[in-house]
Structures are given as structure tokens and as C-alpha cells.
């Protein structure tokens, strides 16, 4: 194939460099020219980057791909995204342009997110961020400036949702000697007991847990499940953790609740707007631990992403049946 006729593949999103480093890209590089963009692309920058692309790979990227954008990308013939869900893709508009869409598997994203949840819980309980900041500023421990940490053993862990991730989080809590209580819309005493947990009402869970962690799939019914009234039920020294979806909590009510100290602290991996705007009120609070949606961002998940992306691209480049097509 001459250089001029070689297909052009554009990889966009964030952590795309990791994807390219991890995967076996030799077979793809032999057949196509691959370029990588190091930041999520938007607006005119996006159009310029994609104008000559035959295929687009979106890595953990939520760029809206709609009819208006597609009208500016006449060469685009194939799209691959990592994971299984990407609600910012207009699949009807892609189908209207006869652009097939493929996706990859998640790999161990549930284990990764369980570990992230515990990183947040333990990091918040032991104030790892504040302690590191203290040492960075040249100080040593300061028992007066920082309240003493609590111990989780013997405390109550309230899990809202006890599915794939919640179930894993429960096991770790039990290993640490915590009492696990749970609520979710269809929870039963029997299902909770299978995980060694006790089913309670949502109000009881909120008022009696030292740590409350959200693991529900968001639905219209669970939108702002934790509103001002529910947040007010939480104990003053409690910790609220969300690695699930921000829609489960009323964001404005959470900021007010944190300012009032109920809950005492929040550890959040997911936000109403991602990337979190520079002016978001959460950034100004001292009683929060914030991570930029990192639950599933681990080496083994990215290995699976890279494997899946190269599989999809190779099949497309060699004219074989498409791998995991969505449309
Ligand atoms: N931070 C990150 O990087 C990551 C975050 N996540 C998020 O973590 C959350 C939990 O994931 P996971 O444990 O895999 O979820 P599950 O699919 O195991 O579901 C968790 C619970 O949500 C409820 N639920 C599930 N599907 C529906 C539905 N269609 N309608 C109503 N309720 C439903 C169920 O409770 P019940 O039976 O009582 O109705 C279920 O037990 C999700 O929001 C997911 O998006 C996932 C991976 C990475
Ligand atoms: O699977 C999920 O819900 C994630 O958070 C990754 O986008």
C-alpha cells in the first residue's frame, strides 16, 4: 500500500498514550498511519484533528460525536470506543452515515473500582492528602492542627447498592472488621445475607453508618437519591464515598451539607460535569478527597482496552467481519 493510500487512524481521549504503549500495535502500524492526541479534543481543534481520519478511536473520551460534527468529517469510515457504554455517541447519526461502531471489553474494572473505593475510604480516614501536604510544607506531624484518625474496625459501613462493585466492597469491609448494612431499591434480607450484610431502610443506613458508599447504577428513579434531607441524616463525623455516578447525589446540597459538617467528609471519583470545571465549588472545600474518575483506570483494564482496540482495527483494516459491532 502506498503511503498516500494508507488509512489514517486517529486516537483521541486521555490516557491514550498508555493504550498505545500497552497494546501490540505492530500489526496496525504495518497497515495504517496512527496519530495520537494527548488531550480530549473539542470544537475546531477536533475537526482539524479528524478531518483526514478514516478511523477514530476514542479512549475513555466523551466527545459528542453527532450529525453536525460528522458533516465536517467526510472521510470517516469507522469508530472504536473503549468500554461498553458511550452515551455521547449519536449512534443514529453514525448509522445514517454508514459508519460502523465497535467497542472493547472492560476487563477487571469492577475489581479496580472496588480498590479505588477503598483507596478513597482509607485515604480519607487517615487524611493522607493533608498529611502529605504537611510534610511537603516542611513540617512534621501536627496533632493539634489535624484531628486524630478513626479506626474502621467495629464501625458500620453502609452500602447503597450491593451488585458487582458493592459486593466486592462489602467483602473488604468485613475483612477489616466492619459491620456491613445495605439498601438498594430491590434489596431483600436474603440477598443482603448472601453478602454477610444486613438489609435496612435508606434512612437507617444514612443515620447509622460511619462510612456510606454509593454503588447503584443511576436511573431516573435514583436521580438525587441523596438530597438535602437525606444528607442531613448522616452522622457529623461520617464519610460519604461516591465511585458510582454523581447523579445519585444533589451536588449543590452536598456542598452545603459538607460546609455544615454532615457528612464530615466526602471522597468523590465522579462529578456532574467531567472534567470538573476549574470553578466548581467542590474544589474549594477542605473536607473532600477528589479523584478524576479513576476507578477503572488501571493497567489491566487498559491492557484489555488495547487488546480490544487493536483487534477491532485489525479486522476492519483487513476486511474481516467487524469485532463487537454496535450498529
Ligand atoms: N468510577 C469508575 O471508574 C467506575 C464506576 N462504575 C459505576 O459503579 C456503579 C456500580 O456498578 P456495578 O456494581 O457494576 O453495578 P451493578 O450492575 O452490579 O448494579 C448495582 C445495583 O444497581 C441496581 N441496578 C442495576 N441495574 C439497574 C437498572 N437497570 N435499574 C435499576 N436499578 C439497577 C441494582 O440494585 P437493585 O437490585 O436493588 O435494584 C444493582 O444491584 C455504576 O454506576 C457504574 O457506572 C463502574 C465502573 C467504573
Ligand atoms: O463503567 C463505568 O460506569 C465507568 O465509570 C467507566 O466509564
From TrEMBL:
Protein name, as recorded: Hydroxypyruvate reductase
Similarity section: Belongs to the D-isomer specific 2-hydroxyacid dehydrogenase family.
The protein's enzyme class: oxidoreductase
Residue ranges constituting the D-isomer specific 2-hydroxyacid dehydrogenase NAD-binding domain according to the UniProt record: 119-295
Residues of the D-isomer specific 2-hydroxyacid dehydrogenase catalytic domain: 29-326
InterPro entries assigned to the protein according to its UniProt record, in alphabetical order: D-2-hydroxyacid_DH, D-isomer_2_OHA_DH_cat_dom, D-isomer_DH_NAD-bd, NAD(P)-bd_dom_sf
Keywords, sorted A to Z: NAD, Oxidoreductase, Pyruvate
Molecular function via GO: hydroxypyruvate reductase [NAD(P)H] activity; NAD binding
Listed Gene3D superfamilies: NAD(P)-binding Rossmann-like Domain (3.40.50.720)
The EC number(s) this enzyme carries: 1.1.1.81
Amino acid at each position: 500500500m502506498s503511503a498516500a493510500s494508507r488509512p489514517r487512524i486517529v486516537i483521541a481521549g486521555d490516557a491514550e498514550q498508555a493504550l498505545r504503549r500497552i497494546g501490540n500495535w505492530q500489526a496496525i502500524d504495518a497497515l495504517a498511519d496512527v496519530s495520537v492526541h494527548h488531550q480530549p479534543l473539542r470544537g475546531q481543534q477536533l475537526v482539524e484533528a479528524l478531518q483526514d481520519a478514516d478511523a477514530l478511536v476514542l479512549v475513555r473520551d466523551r466527545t459528542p460525536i453527532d450529525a453536525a460534527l460528522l458533516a465536517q468529517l467526510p472521510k470517516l469510515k469507522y469508530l472504536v470506543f473503549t468500554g461498553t457504554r458511550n452515551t455521547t455517541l449519536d449512534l443514529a447519526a453514525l448509522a445514517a452515515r454508514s459508519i460502523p461502531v465497535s467497542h472493547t471489553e472492560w476487563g477487571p474494572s469492577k475489581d479496580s473500582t472496588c480498590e479505588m473505593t477503598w483507596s478513597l475510604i482509607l485515604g480519607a480516614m487517615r487524611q493522607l492528602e493533608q498529611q502529605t501536604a504537611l510534610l511537603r510544607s516542611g513540617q512534621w506531624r501536627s496533632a493539634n492542627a489535624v484531628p486524630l484518625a478513626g479506626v474502621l474496625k467495629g464501625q458500620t459501613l453502609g452500602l447503597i447498592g450491593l451488585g458487582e462493585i458493592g459486593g466486592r466492597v462489602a467483602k473488604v469491609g468485613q475483612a477489616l472488621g466492619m459491620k456491613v448494612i445495605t439498601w438498594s431499591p430491590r434489596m431483600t434480607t436474603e440477598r443482603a445475607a448472601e453478602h454477610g450484610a444486613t438489609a435496612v431502610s435508606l434512612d437507617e443506613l444514612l443515620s447509622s453508618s460511619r462510612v456510606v458508599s454509593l454503588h447503584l447504577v443511576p436511573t431516573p428513579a435514583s436521580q438525587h437519591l441523596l438530597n438535602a434531607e437525606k444528607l442531613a441524616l448522616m452522622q457529623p463525623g461520617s464519610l460519604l464515598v461516591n465511585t458510582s455516578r454523581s447523579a445519585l447525589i444533589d451536588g449543590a446540597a452536598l456542598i452545603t451539607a459538607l460546609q455544615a459538617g454532615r457528612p464530615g467528609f466526602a471522597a468523590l471519583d465522579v462529578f456532574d460535569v467531567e472534567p470538573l470545571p476549574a470553578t466548581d465549588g467542590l474544589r474549594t472545600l477542605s473536607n473532600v478527597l477528589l479523584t478524576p474518575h479513576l476507578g477503572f483506570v488501571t493497567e489491566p483494564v487498559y491492557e484489555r482496552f488495547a487488546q480490544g482496540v487493536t483487534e477491532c482495527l485489525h479486522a476492519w483494516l483487513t476486511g474481516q467481519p467487524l469485532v463487537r459491532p454496535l450498529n
